[in-house]
Design goal:
Layout lengths: L1 E3 L9 H5 L5 E3 L5 E3 L9 H5 L5 E3 L3
Antiparallel strand pairs: 1-4, 2-3
Length: 59
């Protein structure tokens, strides 16, 4: 499962713009979150994040 660390996220939106399946949306707090039911774990977002806020977590 791929997750975003909201403490590290700077809300730049790059992850959302690069996601090929639209699994990343801005949440109410202005940060971004990944819908695990939509995410296909291609890691494009992880490789794009300038703050290394996205990582693969153990389920």
């Amino acid at each position: 499962m791929v997750v975003i660390d909201k403490e590290t996220c700077i809300a730049c939106g790059l992850c959302s713009s690069i996601c090929p399946v639209g699994a990343i949306d801005e949440s109410e707090d202005g940060k971004y979150e990944i819908d695990p039911d939509v995410c296909m774990e291609c890691f494009a977002c992880m490789n794009t994040c300038p703050n290394e806020a996205i990582f693969e977590a153990e389920e």
